């Protein structure tokens, strides 16, 4: 089997970085997320490939926080769309965990299917390669196995690397993966190595039947109690690898400007606020309920798989200790 | 959940620039805008009755507006009410202004499935605009539909949209009755005074072989649906069109969902039977 | 801490029995010690879930904003900094005093449940310090300033050394250095608005950043819009910030928000003071930035 010696990791990243923009999980100063390998500063930053995960997911590689859509020139009655900003420069996510890969696949379902293909997402994703980092040691908040994710063999990855001590076992899974492997073939070796053993999950989450049960629970009183601590701050949506809702707005300076889209959060009051002032989800409880139903029921109904990928990030960052696992348990126990 | 055949370009979020060729004042806060391709030839896309398009006053923003169907689609017509940021600015433009459109979006009315039925159209305020597409389609294919009853109500006489059609043209069509009401009595109005749901129950159009199509403010829809139930209309005989805040118009940005349906893509037209399946967020 | 929990449960039971409270705001624990969250007890049966431990760091006066439009009688447990938040809400006429039964707890200093959670999550390569929460290390007001009933013995302030030392260090930078410092820090902001949501002083019904007609600050995540957001928010906090430090604690990218807020606290005190927001409740008193006095400094005009 092909292996990559850890001593050669930096060389590999540098080689790959010559043709594509490589993103790696990094501790950059006080922040933890996916940053470009080019921005890595020795001594200040740290690669986090041997840690469970980083706080911010790699979704910003295919769906950036802000991205320009098209330029506008407007003078009097004349209006012109002079250019569109589709960005298909090659990108590579190195070391994504199964939960994060599933998040990107979920976004593929949304942006590339059902009649319309979002041209901006398509441009980014068509030249995007994912090298997944197989996960053998689940954390205390992990439950990807209950959410249709296989942490040691994630679907959708172009290459899977497995941490076997001083080497990574390197397995290409797709055509794009084979192409990348060929690029760095000289840095790989043929050797036998043993994958680590999977440690058991620290919590037992059973998602079976939850989506079906939730269908009849829209008006259930348990939403009142469970949504009370939520302050609608929106942090869960920002760190979630599969939250994709966006806002479209315009920025003009006099006659010129552009339309752009930015991450939005269903937790904010003005998310569904209509022009006339009406708001079908004006109360915090209604937005809270909408978010969890989207993750656990609506997406499954529409695309066949839950939107939550079991990464556990929302549980760690929520200032008021709201826990999606506890909500799943409450749903199962409710009458 | 339907699969879409979109007639727009490969970049569904980028509008096409068109020219405003005419603007007609309908009420103090509703104007009809007529647009055509910039080169003067035709329109960027054809619409079926009930479909909508994203109108872009480019420097300001976008809104999803119902597009009126016409037989010869030489221009696109939009009846737009002034409610918010973009529509405010749009009401101040003049003929010759270039704006952006993209579409057509939405599933449109089930014109085929309604053939042979008696049609009861119930509208309130600006809600007459989407129904007007279906009504015009029925008049154009008159033999395909049975008796047509139109009930329209608005806040006041000045707020009645499409006055020429409701007061003059439509009542003259064969086998057609038009009933108009306003909320409060007024000096120069000798027509009916009262709210749409109660007027509907008074008129009591038979539910036998009929389809009711409802559009208006959410509170009116709610009461009309209750009245229709009392009058014997079952869930497969009632159609309505919903609205939610929309940004992308193509089912991607997430905000217009009711349950797992996106109103911009799978709707906005729904049979009441389908709505019973969705969470009551409308 | 166990005695304080028992005392609070006793008070809550008494309030529910006497009909003096319809809802009692405290904390509940679900799981480990650090898995503590704000809790809305609504009946005697809920009282047994109330806890007060060293992770009860949340500022419950922020939860009052959810209840401001109702009529229910509210019991609420507050620590030193939190109680200043209640004074602020009373001064801003956001809630009526007679609806509240305030249980003040003299605070010995709290630990940060977010830090404990992160250390156990497996996401940290290096474990974070788990002692006294960062915001509690500079505490100047551990004892509640307003209460109907007081629990716990008086606590000493924790602040060591000069109060505004870090602020003075930044003031001594050159204008360019200062600009670069803030541009670097604020450009990492992801505009999640968590700082706004947890802030007691942020009590506008429609926040300026949610307004569309006109839109004051763009939605883009670049240095300009980020800095505008933080500068506008900070200006709105002038004379209102109670130094509870929740904004900095919850920030997912660790922006040192208290530096900006403390600078404004120092300035408001120097120019318009002496004034510290929410330090004492005098009915009818107005905060410093809500009054005009002839001797207000105007050399910048």
Q: What does it look like?
A:
The complex is a heterotrimer of chains A (335), B (282) and C (301). By secondary structure, chain A is α+β, with helices and mostly antiparallel strands. Chain A has one domain. In chain A, 30% of the residues lie in helices and 24% in strands. In chain A, strands 1, 2, 3, 4, 7, 8, 9, 10 and 11 form a 9-stranded mixed beta sheet that branches. In chain A, strand 9 (159-163) and strand 10 form a beta hairpin. The longest helix of chain A is centred in the C-terminal third of the chain and has 20 residues, at 284-303. Chain A is globular. Chain B is an alpha/beta fold and 282 residues long. Chain B has 2 domains: 16-104, Translation factors (Elongation Factor Tu (Ef-tu), domain 3), CATH 2.40.30.10; 118-241, 3-Layer(aba) Sandwich (Rossmann fold). Chain B is built from 6 helices and 15 strands. Chain C is built from 10 helices and 6 strands, in the order H-E-E-E-H-E-H-E-H-E-H-H-H-H-H-H. Chain C is globular and about 60 Å long. The model of chain C has no long low-confidence stretch (mean pLDDT 90). Chains A and B meet through strand 5, strand 6, strand 12, strand 13 and helix 9 of A and strand 4, helix 1 and strand 6 of B.
Short description:
The complex is a heterotrimer of chains A (335), B (282) and C (301). With 335 residues, chain A is α+β, with helices and mostly antiparallel strands.
Key attributes of the depicted protein:
heterotrimer, A: alpha+beta, nine-stranded mixed sheet, four-stranded antiparallel sheet, 13 strands, 24% strand, globular, C: 301 residues, 2 domains, six-stranded mixed sheet, 10% strand
């Amino acid at each position: 089997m092909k292996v990559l010696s850890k001593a050669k990791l930096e060389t590999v990243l540098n080689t790959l970085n010559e043709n594509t923009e490589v993103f790696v999980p990094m501790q950059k100063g006080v922040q933890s997320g996916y940053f470009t390998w080019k921005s890595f500063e020795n001594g200040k930053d740290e690669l986090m490939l041997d840690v469970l995960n980083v706080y911010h997911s790699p979704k910003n590689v295919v769906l950036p926080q802000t991205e320009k859509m098209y330029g506008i020139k407007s003078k009097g009655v004349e209006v012109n769309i002079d250019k569109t900003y589709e960005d298909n420069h090659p990108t590579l996510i190195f070391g994504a965990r199964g939960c994060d890969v599933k998040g990107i696949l979920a976004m593929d379902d949304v942006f590339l299917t059902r009649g319309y293909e979002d041209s901006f997402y398509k441009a980014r994703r068509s030249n995007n390669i994912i090298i997944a980092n197989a996960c053998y040691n689940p954390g205390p908040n992990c439950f990807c196995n209950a959410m249709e994710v296989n942490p040691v063999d994630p679907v959708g990855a172009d290459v899977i690397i497995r941490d076997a001590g001083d080497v990574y076992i390197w397995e290409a899974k797709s055509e794009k993966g084979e192409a990348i492997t060929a690029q760095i073939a000289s840095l790989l070796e043929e050797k036998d190595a043993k994958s680590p053993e999977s440690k058991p999950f620290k919590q037992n989450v059973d998602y079976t039947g939850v989506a079906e049960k939730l269908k009849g629970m829209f008006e259930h009183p348990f939403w009142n109690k469970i949504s009370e601590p939520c302050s609608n701050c929106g942090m869960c949506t920002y760190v979630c690898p599969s939250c994709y809702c966006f806002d479209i707005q315009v920025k003009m300076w006099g006659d010129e400007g552009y339309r752009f889209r930015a991450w939005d959060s269903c937790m904010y009051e003005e998310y569904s606020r209509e022009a006339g002032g009406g708001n079908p989800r004006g109360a915090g409880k209604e937005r809270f309920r909408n978010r969890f139903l989207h993750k656990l029921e609506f997406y499954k109904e529409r695309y066949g798989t839950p939107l939550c990928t079991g990464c556990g990030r929302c549980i760690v960052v929520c200032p008021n200790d709201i826990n999606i696992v506890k909500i799943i348990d409450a749903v199962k126990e409710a009458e | 959940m339907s699969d879409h055949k979109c007639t727009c370009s490969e970049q569904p979020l980028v509008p096409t620039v068109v020219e405003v060729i005419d603007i007609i004042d309908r009420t103090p806060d509703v104007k009809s805008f007529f647009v055509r391709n910039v080169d003067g030839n035709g329109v960027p896309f054809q619409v079926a009755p009930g479909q909508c398009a994203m109108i872009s006053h480019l420097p300001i923003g976008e809104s999803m507006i119902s597009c009126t169907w016409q037989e010869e689609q030489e221009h696109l017509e939009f009846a737009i009410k002034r409610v918010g940021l973009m529509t405010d600015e749009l009401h101040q433009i003049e003929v010759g202004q270039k704006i952006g459109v993209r579409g057509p979006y939405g599933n449109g009315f089930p014109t085929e499935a309604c053939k042979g039925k008696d049609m009861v159209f119930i509208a309130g305020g600006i809600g007459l605009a989407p129904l007007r597409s279906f009504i015009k389609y029925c008049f154009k294919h008159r033999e395909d539909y049975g008796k047509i009853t139109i009930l329209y109500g608005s806040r006041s006489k000045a707020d009645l949209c499409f006055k020429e059609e409701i007061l003059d043209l439509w009542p003259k069509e064969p086998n057609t009755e038009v009933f108009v009401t306003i909320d409060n009595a007024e000096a120069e109005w000798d027509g009916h005074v009262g709210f749409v749901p109660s007027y509907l129950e008074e008129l009591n159009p038979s539910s036998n072989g009929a389809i009711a199509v409802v559009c208006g403010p959410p509170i009116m829809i709610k009461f009309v649906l209750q009245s229709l139930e009392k009058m014997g209309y079952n869930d497969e005989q009632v159609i309505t069109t919903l609205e939610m805040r929309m940004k992308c118009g193509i089912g991607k940005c997430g905000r217009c969902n009711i349950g797992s349906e996106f109103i911009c893509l799978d709707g906005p037209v729904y049979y009441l039977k389908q709505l019973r399946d969705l969470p009551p967020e409308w | 801490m166990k005695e304080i929990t028992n005392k609070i449960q006793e008070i809550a039971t008494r309030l529910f029995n006497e009909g003096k409270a319809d809802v009692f705001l405290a904390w509940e624990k679900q799981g480990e010690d650090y898995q503590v969250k704000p809790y809305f007890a609504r009946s005697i049966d809920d009282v047994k879930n109330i806890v007060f431990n060293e992770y009860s760091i949340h500022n419950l006066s922020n939860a009052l904003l959810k209840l401001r439009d109702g009529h229910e009688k509210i019991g609420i447990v507050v620590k030193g900094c939190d109680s200043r938040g209640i004074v602020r809400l009373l001064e801003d006429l956001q809630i009526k005093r007679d609806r509240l039964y305030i249980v003040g707890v003299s605070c010995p200093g709290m630990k940060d449940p977010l830090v404990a959670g992160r250390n156990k999550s497996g996401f940290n390569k290096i474990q974070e310090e788990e002692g006294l929460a960062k915001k509690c290390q500079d505490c100047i007001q551990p004892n509640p300033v307003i209460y109907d009933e007081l629990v716990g013995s008086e606590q000493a302030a924790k602040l060591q050394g000069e109060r505004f030392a870090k602020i003075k260090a930044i003031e001594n930078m050159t204008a360019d250095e200062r600009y670069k410092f803030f541009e670097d820090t604020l450009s990492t902001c992801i505009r999640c608005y968590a700082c706004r949501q947890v802030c007691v002083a942020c009590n506008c019904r429609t926040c300026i950043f949610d307004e569309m007609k006109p839109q004051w600050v763009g939605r883009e995540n670049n240095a300009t819009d980020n800095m505008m957001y933080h500068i506008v928010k900070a200006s709105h906090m002038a004379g209102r910030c109670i130094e509870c430090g929740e904004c900095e604690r919850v920030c997912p990218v660790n922006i040192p928000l208290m530096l900006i807020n403390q600078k404004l606290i120092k300035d408001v005190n120097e120019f318009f003071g002496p004034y510290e927001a929410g330090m004492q409740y005098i009915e009818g008193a107005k905060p410093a930035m809500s009054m005009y006095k002839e001797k207000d400094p105007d050399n910048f005009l």
